[in-house]
Amino acid sequence: MLLLVVLLLTAFAPLAPRPDYAGLYRDAPHLAVDTRREGDSLRLYLHLPAPARLGPGHPLRLAAWPSYEAKLPLWQDSIARRRQHPRPEADGSLRLSFCIAAARVPAGAILQLSTAPADAKDDYQEPATTAWLRLTEAVLARPFVLTDSAGQPLARRYVRAGETFGVDSYGLMQPVRWKRYAVTPTPALPPMTSPAAMPAGSRLLPVLDSAEARPGEPLRFQEAGLYALKVGGAGGMPTRTLAVLVGANNYPALTTASELIEPLRYLTTSQERQRLTDAPDPKRAVDKFWLDIAQGNQRQGKELIRQFYGRVTAANRLFAAHKAGWLTDRGLLYVVLGPPPGVRRLFNGEERWFYSDGGLGGGPITYTFRPRPSTFAPDYYELVRRPEYELLWYAAVEKWRTPLTALTGPNAPTALPAR
After folding, report:
1. CA atoms within 13 A on the CB side of 90
2. Predicted confidence band at 412 (pLDDT cuts at 50, 70, 90)?
3. Which helix (DSSP H) or strand (DSSP E) does residue 334 occupy?
4. Which comes out higher in pLDDT, residue 390 or 202?
5. CB-based burial of residue 55 (10 Å sphere; 0-12 exposed, 13-18 middle, 19+ buried)?
6. Burial class of residue 155 in the structure, from the number of CB atoms within 10 Å of its CB (0-12 exposed, 13-18 middle, 19+ buried)
7. Across-strand partners of 144?
8. What is the pLDDT of residues 32-51, one digit of tens each?
9. How many CB atoms lie within 10 A of CB 168?
10. Which of 105, 199, 235, 265 is deepest in the core (most CB within 10 A)?
11. Cα 172 from chain centroid (whole Å)
């Protein structure tokens, strides 16, 4: 009888609206999440950006979904204030930490976390108050978390060269062995490139160097690149691997002349980039490149610089994998076309980006990304390339180089409006 009641309640429960994930790709402060396995529990670490709001009217809610397209969650819950262990930061942000039973979150489930007001629209994902976490077996099993120099969870998979960080293991402190791999920072190819013409990725990455750190010893890598941390082995604990991208200089921002020139490969020829590199003052040459596009209008030239490199920085932060975010397939579209106005995530892990006016005749266009996870890049996606994108792509690039459309037109470099 009880089972029948449960089935009837499930059958007539209101279906959740299909969310639009585009908000999560806005260049805006994000709710950051990290996890650590602790025995039969999964600890979640949250970092709410300033101004952080929590408490009456802004509850901390969780929902576990069997897939991104599921109509009903596996369960929904809220975390009581006494379980959140809030820690206010000097900048107005807020850190939280709490545990849930690992048995409640099977591998493959999607965990949704929200601090939005109870009356907020569920179909729009506000990045400052909403986060989604795909619970892979690796995420559920990892018994350590990366921390900053103050011992707080990083909640990111990149660090800057020379930045001090640590590994905080649950239980007995574990030794850390690391390897630095040789990765060619190959930029993404245009969306009309034939898959047959794309270079095959190397199955084995050469190891450049390696070392071991004592348990609890801070880490600091001076060389940029891809590192694999192997943590464990003490007290019979299994060894787990986590890849970390070490970015040069002020990653995800760009600071040097070469860093500013490289992303221009999406808009320029190799000869143009070589002239910028060979200029007596490459940084000034980059400024002149944008000023020429703006036909001498300094205000427009500065706005183009701000918008273009703002997108590159955002792509670096959002899509960092085994290489800088702007080099990835999603970073390619993000930089040239801008943040997608609409994003749908399918049950098979695919992402579809919708642009309302980037197609033929100014009509809509859709780009599909398929997940290609690996140990070094668990959240990596590849674009499904099609020959029919060719004219659309050249038109999008030309808009950046045409003064009348560079700051207007379908791919105008503007951020998504807040909703």
Report:
1. 0
2. low
3. helix 329-337
4. 390
5. exposed
6. buried
7. 169
8. 999 999 999 999 999 999 99
9. 16
10. 105
11. 31
pLDDT tens digits, 293-352: 999 999 999 999 999 999 999 999 999 999 999 999 999 999 999 999 999 999 999 999
Q: Quick check: 79 and 98 in contact, CB under 8 A?
A: yes
Measure the CA–CA gap between 261 and 1, rounded to whole angstroms: 69
Report whether the peptide linkage leading into residue 413 is cis, meaning its omega lies within 30 degrees of zero. no
Torsion sign over Cα 100, 104, 110, 116: negative
Q: Residue 122's closest CA among 16, 277, 46? A: 16
SS3 content of the chain, % helix, strand, coil (to 5): 30, 25, 45
> Is residue 68 within a helix (H) or strand (E), and if so which, with residue range?
none
What single-letter DSSP state applies at residue 397? Answer: H
Q: Quote the percentage of the chain above a pLDDT of 70.
A: 89
Query: Could you tell me which residues come within 8 angstroms of residue 326 by beta carbon, excluding any fewer than 6 positions away?
Result: 187, 263, 312, 315, 316, 319, 332, 334, 335
Residue 108, phi-psi category: left (phi > 0), alpha (psi -120 to 50), beta (remainder): left
Cα torsion 121, 122, 125, 131: sign: positive
Helix (H) or strand (E) holding 228: strand 225-231
AA letter at 308:
F
Distance CA 382, CA 305 (A): 27
Round to whole Å and give the CA distance between 353 and 345: 9
Considering only CA atoms, give the Rg of the chain: 23
Q: Which two tokens stand for residue 327?
A: 């080099």
Task: State the Cα–Cα distance between residues 321 and 156, nearest whole angstrom.
Answer: 11
